[in-house]
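User: tokens in, sequence out, please.
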């Protein structure tokens, strides 16, 4: 691993009594890179960010932020970090401007620069004209962008975003990611966690994590070309729920999952492909309206890797 990378984790492990929340995780993030940690709730993503921020001490391993050992010098590391938590952390009974002044003080933004940084945050969040509005009255997307503005008031070179778009509408999510990309273009190093697989497409590189362990990493394009160990098909049919149950119990079907009103069915190469799927469904009086081979998406890859890992453990 490069000693000059803004973020470095080596053998990062966190135990809570007998429970292992993070299990020997190693990675680094380059300057101006957007790294996404993708995985289900409870996978260990938030724990990793809290360790990186110096809010938790690792049980094993080391973490460096801009060359600073976070466990040894957490306060020095935090001066280089902007952090936005998954729970909205601003004060609803204060105005937009009052929140910004408060966080400017918390982050020790020099008085000579504070007005400039606050104006930047307001412009970025699209809150011009709403400086005196109570934060509790703002729509979710504006709250989210204001929280981001507060996190970068001190112009940190590193930004940690812990599930920042949870519960936000799609348009606001897209706008938020535009802001993230603008920051990365300015050289800010960004680590973002999410359980939305579609958001991985916005990252330069992603890490798929499950049960505290990294199951794969690479660019979105690289990961979508991960061999699944079979052929993947899209199935649209009557009675999707019943088809899910039938195919899930069929020998030679490695995995089947619902995607909206359709199914993604992964079968072994020896299974027989489309004809075999049609035969199984017809035998159960399930009419197929569409059946075709498809390229895997990131969710397909993630499910396949997790399922394969669980099978290996068992």
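Assistant: Sequence out:
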């Amino acid at each position: 691993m490069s000693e000059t990378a803004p973020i470095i984790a080596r053998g990062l492990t966190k135990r809570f009594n007998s429970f292992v929340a993070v299990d020997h995780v190693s990675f680094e993030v380059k300057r101006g890179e957007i790294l996404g940690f993708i995985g289900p709730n409870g996978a260990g993503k938030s724990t990793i960010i809290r360790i990186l921020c110096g809010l938790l001490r690792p049980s094993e391993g080391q973490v460096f932020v801009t060359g600073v050992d976070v466990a040894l010098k957490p306060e020095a590391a935090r001066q280089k970090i902007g952090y936005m938590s998954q729970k909205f952390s601003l004060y609803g009974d204060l105005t937009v401007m009052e929140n910004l002044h408060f966080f400017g003080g918390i982050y020790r933004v020099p008085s000579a620069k504070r007005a400039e940084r606050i104006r930047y945050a307001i412009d970025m969040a699209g809150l011009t004209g709403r400086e005196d509005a109570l934060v509790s009255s703002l729509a979710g997307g504006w709250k989210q962008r204001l929280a981001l503005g507060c996190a970068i008031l001190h112009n940190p070179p590193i930004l940690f975003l812990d599930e920042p778009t949870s519960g936000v509408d799609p348009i606001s999510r897209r706008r938020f990611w535009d802001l993230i990309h603008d920051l990365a273009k300015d050289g800010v190093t960004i680590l973002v966690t999410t359980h939305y697989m579609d958001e991985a497409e916005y990252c330069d590189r992603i890490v798929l994590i499950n049960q505290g362990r990294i199951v794969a990493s690479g660019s979105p394009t690289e990961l979508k070309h991960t061999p699944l160990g079979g052929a993947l098909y899209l199935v649209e049919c009557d009675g999707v729920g019943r088809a899910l149950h039938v195919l899930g119990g069929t020998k030679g079907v490695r995995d089947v999952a619902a995607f909206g009103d359709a199914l993604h069915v992964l079968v072994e190469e020896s299974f027989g492909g489309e004809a075999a799927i049609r035969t199984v469904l017809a035998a159960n009086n399930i009419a197929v309206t569409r059946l075709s081979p498809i390229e895997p998406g990131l969710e397909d890859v993630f499910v396949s890797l997790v399922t394969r890992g669980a099978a290996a453990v068992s």
